[in-house]
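Q: Joint fold for the lines below.
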Amino acid sequence: MKDVTGQKVLRDSRVTLAHGGGGKAMRDLIESVFTDVFEPDGMEDQARLTAEALAVPGARLAMTTDSFVVTPVEFPGGDIGKLAVCGTVNDLAVGGATPLYLSAAFIIEEGTEIALLRRIVATMRDEADKAGVRIVTGDTKVVGRGSADQVFITTTGVGVIAPGVELKAGNVRPGDVAIVNGVLGDHGACILAARGDMALSSDLVSDCAGLGHLMAAVQAACPNVRAARDCTRGGLASALNEIAEAAGVAVEIEEDALPLRAEVKGTCEILGLDPLYLANEGRLVLFVPEDEAEAALAAMRSVPEGEGATVIGRAKPAPAGQVTMRTLFGGARIVDMLVGEQLPRIC
Amino acid sequence: MKDVTGQKVLRDSRVTLAHGGGGKAMRDLIESVFTDVFEPDGMEDQARLTAEALAVPGARLAMTTDSFVVTPVEFPGGDIGKLAVCGTVNDLAVGGATPLYLSAAFIIEEGTEIALLRRIVATMRDEADKAGVRIVTGDTKVVGRGSADQVFITTTGVGVIAPGVELKAGNVRPGDVAIVNGVLGDHGACILAARGDMALSSDLVSDCAGLGHLMAAVQAACPNVRAARDCTRGGLASALNEIAEAAGVAVEIEEDALPLRAEVKGTCEILGLDPLYLANEGRLVLFVPEDEAEAALAAMRSVPEGEGATVIGRAKPAPAGQVTMRTLFGGARIVDMLVGEQLPRIC
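A: Joint structure:
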């Protein structure tokens, strides 16, 4: 059934098990809600892609995947679809890859509003356009009520790593400078407030953003950038611990250099949370040699996602694998990996 | 914590929310259950892959994704992990691509047994080895009890389509011969029996299998193979309807040529199901020009997954888009797309 503009009309307002059954209802849902927006090149099960960048001798294919289960699925500053596109774009970008193509697989709970799916899909298309990637293939599955929570999305991204590019945690050396691209913890604190069960009123907006353009700017400006990590689950603390361990260096950060909104600090104080472990979805930490730090800051600040770029610390020779923070009072404390769970379903 | 063999020991017997939190518990789960078995090249978030086949001028990258939500997660002949690997390998293979790399993302319900995850991961590794693909990157998320049903897996596959290869539904022409690789409906009937709520006792085993080697054999033997489709959700009927519609041809199949086990026929008769719509996870339908049909049959029968290969019908000029079946009694009936839902969570 099509309307006067030729667009497929879906009569249902909620997803039923029939929409996952492989028949007519599924095809109608896919065409009306997904492929009309994502506009893949064909309706074969597989996308068929040409990528000249991959044919360059020495180029490598980058591949990464993430499932998104955030609750609530819509929150100030974004929704699960924005997270799914940005999260996968960022995983490619922080590894030095140029993101090219995404797949998107949806697990949908029976009874989910189709209008909600349409909003999520529209966000995904917008974010993909901004990031310069295409969503080329996908899948939908429907499960009964109570067997999932509204919608889960798994995005997989492929990109290309240009010859000679080698960003990895193990590259960080003593003396390298650690830079973040903006205030920390907004996403975690925003989701916490959006859940409503803490009765926190908040104007916080998730920091969710694609960081592909930022990474491209940094790589162009800093030929020796060592490594970058997006600070998602487990926050800045986990990213720094991974880097310290992989590189066999110590990392020392300065508490008074950490960019934090008063509101995020306040939320953490009330709830006994540590902002170092709060999730971010548009923040990364970057290590560059000291003589490239100024160039990296300038490059980051040249794009909107890096306006708040600032140095937070540096790598030291020892003790290997340890992250410490010099506190406002002049002491030092160890910043360990997160133990236990701070906030489930944050992304 | 490591045991005497150096293997990481996980003290928990069930998954907790902490295993999804981005901290120490998550890292222990990932190392102990997933990466120790999948053995990716590094512990960066992204896999970095070289593929000489992709650098060949004219080669294309194939990409496909599927989420798996089958219940029960373990069944005669396989488990959700086997489905996840075979399903994605098959989506690549039926499009003429050589499968190369897979990603695997797990959404796990709190309380799921870690021993179950280990069995699933072991199956995935086995199937990937059989198919000649590598599982190169992955993700785990944990959701609370009741927010998912044990474990959902999303696999994404990339492969390479050699220059000049062009298998697609739209290529099928009148006169082409339709071939399936074995008995139909075993997977659907097996899952139905495994759920136990029908009180069917059954010796049926899922047909779940990777079809990459079969497709490679057919492509080597038949330079003009037109199209192939795996007959998963929606069964043979849906695959044939998609082909008939895309190619603008009619497809006529013969009821007495359809390979069906007596047990599957019986299950369908008791429950009022149509075997044409039963899901298969190791069956495909292939269209080849008439003069290549013998070569295709021989090629299929040369591999274990094609031992039961048989001709089931052919493409005709009209009526375009229609699939009909000549019945045992000499009549003909239209085989339409599945309407509604036959069996939820079959894959």
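Q: Anything notable?
A: Residues 240 and 323 of chain B are 7 Å apart (CA to CA). Chain B has two domains: 17-161, 169-334.
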